[in-house]
Amino acid sequence: MRDPGTRWRSLLYQALVLAALLALLFWLAHNTREQMQARSIHSGFDFLLDRAGFDIGESLIPYNADAAYWRAFAVGLGNTVCVALPGVLLATLLGTAIGLGRLARNVLLRALCGVYVELLRNIPLLLQLLFWYLLSTRILPDVAAPVQLGPLELSKAGLSFIQTPGATAADAVDRAGGFAPSLSPEYLALLFGLVTYTASYIAEVVRAGIASVPAGQREAAQALGLGARQVLRLVTLPQALRLIVPPLTNQYLNLIKNSSLAVAIGYPDLVSISNTALNQSGRALECMAVIVAVYLSLSLLTALTMGLANRRAALRAR
Amino acid sequence: MPKSFIPFLTAIALLASLLGATPAFAGKTLDAIKARGQLVCGVSTGVPGFSAADSSGTWTGMDVDICRAIAAATLGDADKVKYVPLVSQARFSALQSGEVDLLSRNTTFTLTRDASLGLSQTAVVYYDGQGFLVPVKSKIRSARQLKGLTVCVQAGTTTEKNLTDFSKSQNLNIKPVVFEKIEAAEGAYFSGRCAAYSTDASGLASTRNKVAKNPADHQILPELISKEPLGPMVRRGDEDWTAVVKWTVYGLLEAEENGITAANVDTLKANSKDPVVARLLGTGDDTGKLLGLDKDWLARAIKVTGNYGEIFERNVGPHSALQLPRGLNNLWNKGGIQYAPPLR
């Protein structure tokens, strides 16, 4: 038991540090503002309500050049989520499969999964994205002569539903009110690159988690007569999950942040659209602040969700 | 870290420099350059004909020649220039923060840039307009045929907005695919991802010449959809420095108008009885004094880079690799619109 004096003193120190931090932040903001005014650089977030005036290639929500800047940012956020969410799901599935493959008894399967992990996680992601993108735009057939895959067609314009003969792409866009149900090669390359890259890390996380479950647990389950699948589902995975979830959260956060590499391959994600907004409006600091705020919120939201998942997976003492 | 963080870094640099709370730059830029013995010039990351480094690291191009002329005028040595290659999103921040003295980087003059960025526009070095590059085999012969098609562009320029305006006014529904780096935008176009590539017409000529396997397979469409007056920009608040930059460009134009070239500048300086020529070359009235320079400032610049016409011919003209016609950039008395106020 600490005496009340120590407690008050430590509270006082914390309050002082907090005050100093706030003062520093205030000074930073104030000085920046003053200096920018002195150099007649316009500042402030009022530009978010101004007309953006630029088009965006693909968008989830209705958008045109007459919309305000905040709406352009919203389009960017939507596009980022649109690649991050499926990315997280697919990377988890692929990563788990490969992680399990690395523990398989089949030597060939184990080796193949090992090669996959070492190859993918040791090449910079930017390089991989550029590779997939250039590959897709080089090898895919021209828009005029797409490959048909069931109800879908694949070409340099991306993956889309086959349109009725005679109708041009422009007509279809007009009919759908500016929204054509198709996936661009930029989106596909980004999603593919992010999923395959992140899966190589997730595979290691899964492998490590499963390997950490003592062999005795598995053997005991087998001795009880459980089949291989039952052992995995009822005994190994629940215990492994406790170790898997926290590092998995890191990988999810990485994937979300890595999606900003979209600018390199022409996918209009939040960073790409902010770049354009920054240039059109000249509000560099403000646009950067928007990017920071959005990624921070996305990451905190993910961390929160995974925290809940972690609590469910955690060991419950009974 | 990835290139996408360049604007972020420049924002930090801007913030850091602003926090430095140095007094306003007014009147100080020229003094700082003289004290440093070096002009710091912001240029592009590689637009042949305007600013591009060759394999030995030597920068050439029209924008580079402007930097060299200004260095010759202010420092007496055209080689005392440090070139800072800037991507388009970073260029204004670099100038605002004082990282460069001068932005000579095929930059369009617009109201927004003049009025809200704390920067000043000087003299127009190249009158350009935005156009489209398409493959000859695509059968597209007019920009109006681009309805519903994709167009590759680079981010962080006036290009995107012009494209949107054009698409809207002509009801074309053009879909932009926006890349951060010019190389990526060009790469996507040449691999067939986009029906057209769009930027300033001079840039299209540069790209076609630099990247295309066979330049004759690609053609620049006849329509120019915007006005793009390109020229050097400086920080606002130092009118003395603005004047030096502006009048160096005007001086090079005046030199062409009066027949002064790199080859004959010394002879004319020694012998010419023409009062206009004498004033330009510093043997008559002292124009340099008014700018904070010496008498020979313009003669030195002309000696190094030649007059405006020579700069144009050497870097982008009909006999250079880019083969751009002189067009609008001819002198006002030869059918163009390049008209310099008188140096007197």
Write a structural description:
The complex is a heterodimer of chains A (318) and B (344). Chain A is 67% helix and 4% strand. Chain A contains ten helices and four strands. The radius of gyration of chain A is 25 Å and the shape is flat. Chain A has a single domain (46-313), classed as MetI-like (MetI-like fold), CATH 1.10.3720.10. With 318 residues, chain A is mainly α. Chain B has 344 residues and is an alpha/beta fold. Helix content of chain B is 39%, strand content 15%. Chain B contains 14 helices and 14 strands. In chain B, the strands form five sheets. In chain B, strands 10-9-11-8-12 form a five-stranded mixed beta sheet, sandwiched between helices. In chain B, strands 4-1-5 form a three-stranded parallel beta sheet. In chain B, helix 3 (62-75) crosses helix 9 and helix 3 runs antiparallel to helix 13 (297-305). Chain B starts with 5 loop residues before the first helix and ends in a 29-residue tail after the last helix. Mean pLDDT of chain B is 90; it is low at 18-26. Chains A and B meet through helix 1, helix 4, helix 5, helix 9 and helix 10 of A and helix 1, helix 4, helix 5, helix 6 and strand 10 of B.
